[in-house]
Structures are given as C-alpha cells and as structure tokens.
Amino acid sequence: MKTTIFRKLVLWFGVAVVASFAAFFATTYFSFASRPGGERMFGGLRIMQLEDAVEAYQKVGVPDLSKFLKRLDYYLPGEHYLLDRSGKDLVTGQMRRELLLPPPRDPERRPGPPFLSGPRGGPPPLMRSDSADGQFVFIVRMPLLSRYDPWSVLPYYGSILLIILIVAYIFATTLVRPIGRLRESMVRFGAGDLDVRNRSTRTDELGDLAHSFDQMADRIQTLLTAERRLLQDISHELRSPLARLGFAIELARTSTDRGAALDRIKKESSRLSQLVGELIQMTRAEGDPGERVSELFLLDQVARTVLDDCAIEADAKGCKLRMQAEDGLRMQGDPSLLNRAIENIVRNAIRHTPPESVIDVTLAREDSSWIRLAVRDRGPGVPEELTRDIFRPFFRVDSHRNREAGGVGLGLAIAQRAILLHHGEISARNVHPGLEVVLRLPAAIEHPTKKPAEATGVSGD
To answer: Residue 176: pLDDT band by 50, 70, 90 thresholds?
Structure first.
C-alpha cells in the first residue's frame, strides 16, 4: 500500500503524543510514589496529630480526646484512634490489638504513602505513629477509596489524546490538501489545459510553491501561444504570396515578357521577406519573458530617437513630424521593444497621412502613475466599429489599408503586444480628420521635476 504524506503526518504525530503521555504519566506516578519528601510530610503530620491527641487526653481527659478525633475524622480521610501500648482504645476502652500488628507482606506493595502503596483489595491500609516514650500509639485507618489508582485516570488522558489526534488530523489535512490541489493542477497542465492555475492565497512555503507554478504556467503558456499563433499566421498569410509567386514563375517560363514576370517574382519575394521579418519581430515582442531587458530609461529620449529615424520617410512622403514632449519621463522596461512599438505606430501614421500634412506626437505625464503618448495622422481614419480590430495581426481596412498601401497588417499588433508586456494600454480613435493612437505606460516610481519642451519640425521644417 502506498504511504502518503498525510498518513505519515498523522502516524508520527500520534506516536509522539502517545509517547509523551506515557512518559508524563510514568514520571508523575513514580516520582510522586517514591519521593522521600512525601513520606516526611505525612509522617510529620501524623506526629503532630499524635501530640495534639495525647495533650487533649492528658490535660482534659477522654471527652476532649473524643472531640479532637471526631474533628479529624470529619476533616481528614480515614478513622483516627489513640491507643496505649497494649492496644486499648483510650476513648472507648475497647481492645484494638489488631491495629498494632504489622501488615501482612504484600508482593504488590510499593514504597511510598499508603494511599499509593496499599495492596490491591484486602484490609484498608494503616498509618501508625508512636509517642516518644512509647506509651501511646496513634493509628489512622485509611479508606480504600482514597488509594490512588493510576488506571482510573486513563479515560481523561484518553480524551485529551483524542482531541490532540483530531487537531493533528486537521493539521495534516490543511498541509496536504494544497499539495493535492497543486498536483491536480500539474496533471491538468501536463494534459494540455494551459489555462489551469492554482491561485493560492497562502503566504507560507506551500503558497510560494503554488505561485511559482502559476508563474511557470504563465511563461509556458505565453511561449506555446506565441508559437501556435506564429504558425497559424504564417500558414494563413503565406498562402496567397506563395501562390502568386508560383504563378509568376510559371509565367517566366512561358511568357515572352520575362522581364515583367521577373519583376513580379522580385516583388512577391520582397513581400515574403517583409512578412517573415515582421512575424519574427512580433514573436520576439511576446516571447520568453526571461530574455527581456528591464531597465530604467527616459521615454522622451526613445520617442525623439524614433522620430529622428522616421524623418527621412516622412520627407519622402512630403509630410512633417511635430513633437511636443515633457523631459525626464522615466519608466521601467525594455527600451528597444518600446522603440519598435512607437516606430511601428509612427510609420503607420506616415503611410496613411496625405502629403503636405502634419503628424503630431505628444508625450506628457498624465498623472503620478501614468505617461501618455499620442500619435495623430491626418488620414481618412477607420470605421468606428473597427478601431479595436486594427490591433489584430494581419487585419486591414479593405478600402484604405490594403497590401498596395504597404505593410502586412502586423505593425500595430506588434505595438500592442509590446505595450501590454509593459503593463500599459493602447487604443485608437478617430479625430476627424485622421486617426489618433494613444499609449498609456506606467511611470517609474521616482518623480523628477517636469520641464516642458516643444520640438517642432523634426523632419519637415
């Protein structure tokens, strides 16, 4: 039979408790039974009672002695007698020589006070004290019920033991149940349920283990999801250009105008190269979190670098980039990943803005926790119901953002995933004219003094 941690905990806890009770019981019993101080205490008490009884008898007589012994019988357990050395009861005059006889030898007798060491059954135990001159004998006949029976307390110890075992059971259950849930989560995750999480609220080591599992599951799910999405996107998007490429090759073999066919082949090859490059870039944007860089940097410097890189493309289109930004906007993250995200948004704006127009880029602190970056073009915008769809991979607005207008529909998808990896937000809205893409990114903890600055005509003045 398989031995579980639960059984081991309950078993060892029970063994420890039983052994502790046994040790406590034995130590208490034997130390009390054999303690010399206990015998001296009882002996001193009997001597004091003997002296008081003799004094009452000698000074006042039998009536006073009788009252004294009755008080002892009332307040103390047992029967009390004062005899002379011949065994005569000085109160009743009755001969009680049997009280002077030594008790029979009992092999079960143990050293210690009579209520501990008396025999099992038989006559009640006797305690005897003789006066110094040997004329008087004080006898106490103890009741049998006052004898200490160690077995009589076992039910009480048993109830305590039962309570402790119940507590041990609850403790073991509390300890083992999270392990069982974690095991179930791991089995489900291994079977392909990538959404399963433990979501433990514990703050101990088991809680840390559950949190580590959740982090591992998030990381693996991110990697597998990115890989599956990449394969699906590639298989979907490569089908059309590969078909056109095959058609162009066939034309190059049969057509008299081979130059046009080769130009078509070159065009389709360039599109395939661009598509593969952007797919790789998107996959890296959502790839392994452990390989991403996280550092403190100035977002305004990254934005200005992007606009400087895009200036040539804007000049070629005949439009102008205009930037208004605050200095010293710090955030924590991967500057190169955000650089690509902002660059994709700006190039998308350049691609769809009309010539001789202005693209506005504004960057400012929204509040103590967020930084807002907005890129606005002067193009036709998109239908209101599609403002969220433009961030999906390979999405295009047919009437304006088709393949002939440039791009494969991955720029904004790459930007969105980069922003989400930095725990930010991205949205788009029509501003008539044009489309404005707004980024909200978390600011760093430190809050430097704002120094507003405006940079106009980045590439068009």
So the answer is: confident
Give the HSE-up count for residue 62: Cα atoms under 13 Å, Cβ half-sphere: 6
Separation CA 133–CA 78 (nearest Å) = 25
- CA gap 350, 251 in Å, rounded: 35
Examine the pLDDT at 203 and tell me if it is beyond 70: yes
The answer, yes or no, to whether residue 358 has pLDDT greater than 70, is yes
Give the three-class secondary structure for 196.
coil
Calculate what percentage of the chain has a pLDDT beyond 90. Answer: 20
Question: Which residues neighbour 165 within 8 Å (Cβ) at sequence distance 6 or greater?
Answer: 10, 13, 14, 17
The mean pLDDT value of the chain amounts to 78
Reply yes or no: is the peptide bond before residue 113 cis, omega within 30 of 0.
no
Q: Which of 61, 43, 64 is closest to 138 using CA atoms? A: 43
Distances (CA, A) of 322 to 42, 46, 310, 336: 106, 112, 12, 22
Q: Are residues 258 and 308 in the same domain?
A: no
Q: Residue 359: is it exposed, middle or buried by C-beta count within 10 angstroms (0-12/13-18/19+)?
A: buried
* Confidence check: pLDDT of 287 > 50: yes
Give the integer Cα–Cα distance in Å for 73 and 140.
9
Residue 2 is assigned to a structural domain of this protein: no
- Residue of 366, 376, 434 lying closest to 400 (CA atoms): 434
More confident residue, 334 or 453: 334
Per the structure, the complete domain to which residue 56 belongs is given by: 34-101+112-148
CA distance 272 to 276: 6
| More confidently predicted of 105 and 96 | 96
Q: Say whether both 244 and 277 belong to one domain.
A: yes
Decide the pairing of beta strands 425-430 and 358-365.
unpaired
Token pair 């049997």 in the structure block, residue = 98
- What's the predicted TM-score (pTM) here? 0.46
- Which position has the token pair 């009743």? 92
Minimal CA–CA distance to 141: which of 64, 72, 47, 39? 72
**Same structural domain, 437 and 450:** yes
Highest mean pLDDT among 109-118, 258-267, 429-438: 429-438
